[in-house]
Amino acid sequence: CISTSCLSGCHGNTTCDLRDTGSNCSGCEPISLEICMNLPYNFTRFPNYLGHHSQKETSVSWESSLFPALVQTSCYKYLMFFACTVLVPMCDPLTQQRVPPCRSLCLSSKERCESVLGIVGLQWPEDTNCTQFPEEGQTNTSCLLPDPDVNECSPSHFKCRSGRCVLSSKLCDGQTDCDDDSDEETCGCVERGLWECPGDKTCINHNMICDGFPDCSLKEDEHNCSVCSSHELECSNHECVHRSLWCDSRKHCSDSSDEWNCVSLSEGGLVVVYKSGMEYQVCADGWSSNHSSITCTQMGLGSPVSTEMVQDRSLSAVRRRWLHINPHWSEHNIIPLQGMLGKRGQSCQSHKTISLLCTKDECGRRPAARMVKR
Amino acid sequence: ILGGRTSRPGRWPWQCSLQSDPSGHICGCVLIGRKWALTVAHCFEGRESADVWKVVLGINNLDHPSPYMQTRQVKSIIVHSRYNRAVVDYDISVVELESEVEVTSYVRPICLPNHGQLPKPDKYCHITGWGHVGNRMPFKLQEGEVRIISVSQCQSYFDMKTITSRMLCAGYEAGTIDSCMGDSGGPLVCEEDDGRWSLYGLTSWGSVCFSKFLGPGVYANVTHFTEWIKRQIYLRTFHL
Predict the structure, then answer these.
(1) Cβ count within 10 A of residue B100
(2) Of A156, A256, A363, the CB nearest to B196
(3) Cβ atoms of residues A130 and A112 within 8 Å
(4) In three state form, how does the secondary structure of chain B look?
(5) Angle (deg, nearest 10), helices A62-71 and A79-87
């Protein structure tokens, strides 16, 4: 509606809610508010009876937390139904108009539950004044009353065997909330439709298995997710990539995990490169300060403090595999260290390797906030 | 920030304002490197393109450009691939700036905590932002001191939600000092024993801050994402 009143397409009613436009005045929209997804009607229209203008606004409102919590007290059998007729009013598909709850439903809810709120120092929501709703049976005004078999609990509740509703976050939380303790009975992962981590017995959603993100503390959910051949290595997302492509400074796994953790520092600070699935030491011949800087940067360790070319006296040095600096590397092309190395297997003339010390870039200081003597 | 106070220029040199025309300030953000900032993923809902964003640093009064102010266009936005908007889980993004900032006394990166390093419950830390103060949106950066709250205690405030290991809670039972709309993406920082400050949380969600329901604020748990953050920076730096 361009002006304050609707065009004739809006059935001439004098005010539109914020979202109506001259071109689209259909008011009904599917219900998406989780706590009201099991109603006998599926369409709603805004603004609702609390003055909210959208389901998103309603979903973060105080009332959308208050009513489900109040339902747990079993103060009134049809409280959840009433709450939803107020939060997401029914929209009649024919008239595109809201259908209010009947006044008697509002009065019954308020009479039974207002005192419970009083106990915890809360008030009945002001905007749900029952006089705004029509009496049932009045001519040419329809209003809503619950069917006897209407759901007393919302989809955000767990229904105890006794019929009581408790919030689903209380299911299997280690405390009995149902009067018959049924919320703590079948608490295995399987009963809750979840997958149980063999190690720590935590429950995770099935869609988290083999998705590249370890969720179990022992990462069992990411084990046995693919079968790579002997000359392939497994990506984090379980694709298989030929080992010769591993840590070659180009992405081959779609999640680029073949280029993760290619460079590390051993205990003694020696630079170790993991290439084609094997560990290499870097021959010091041809190493420059640029190489040190790039190496610290790619490990997220900030900047180089010191670089030493050391004789590798470890026993395994004899069998050590060497990688050599590629002399044709130019400083202008930004590639990670594993891309600057080549000529595997050749011996290292100097028999020296690189020991590197990196340090975090300056962070977390605030010189402008220093104390100034007065 | 509810219940906070106006901060002085230079007190939080890592704080930045994530802006998009014509609205101006949309969310907070945090400088973690010369070309890198962090914010939360939900700030980009409906505005996923990097072109519409810029980052403003070294500023205290949004309405009053300062001589220390630096502005950078956003080059790329990396939203966590597991960000879940329904339950606001994995609510974190890495923001790459078009060019490096100049590190000054008023523009400085914050330290990231080591992987698994969590602040102790009941430790006092600070939140900052230009978000709602309860009855208006302030021009000047606000700061507030909040207490870290254990996950189990925090869960008791939020019956309808699940507090995951990707979340961190801080504030007070009465909600007296809390973050609010417009603070999202801003820092929750704690001072370390060596006097440096580390980033432990990014303002993410909570109850409707100026409603009757009170309780703590919920922050993206930066410690959980330290490796992920470093990896995103590595992959973008080397065009992988």
Answers:
(1) 11
(2) A363
(3) no
(4) CECCEECCCCCCCCEEEEEECCCEEEEEEEECCCCEEEECHHHHCCCCCHHHCEEEECCCECCCCCCCCEEEEEEEEEECCCCECCCCECCCEEEEECCCCCCCCCCCCCECCCCCCCCCCCCEEEEEECCCCCCCCCCECEEEEEEEECHHHHHCCCCCCCCCCCEEEEECCCCCCECCCCCCCCEEEEECCCCCEEEEEEEEEECCCCCCCCCCEEEEEHHHHHHHHHHHHHHHHCCC
(5) 170
With a CB cutoff of 8 Å and minimum separation 6, the contacts of A95 are A11
Chain A interface disruption, residue of B81, B159, B162, B228, most A CBs within 10 A: B159
pLDDT along chain A (374 residues), means of 10: 40 43 66 91 94 88 88 92 96 92 95 88 85 88 91 89 86 84 86 87 90 90 91 94 94 95 92 92 92 93 92 65 84 84 81 92 90 79
Give how far B109 is from chain A: nearest CA, Å: 5
- Residues of chain A with Cβ-Cβ distance to B211 below 8 Å are 61-62
State whether the Cα torsion A92-A95-A100-A101 is positive or negative: negative
The end-to-end CA distance of chain B, in Å, is 39
Three-class secondary structure of residue A222 per DSSP: helix
Summarize pLDDT for B32-55 with one digit per residue, the tens: 999 999 999 999 998 999 999 999
List Cα–Cα distances, B9 to B12, B20, B57, in angstroms.
Answer: 8, 23, 11
Respond yes or no: is residue B184 known to be catalytic: yes
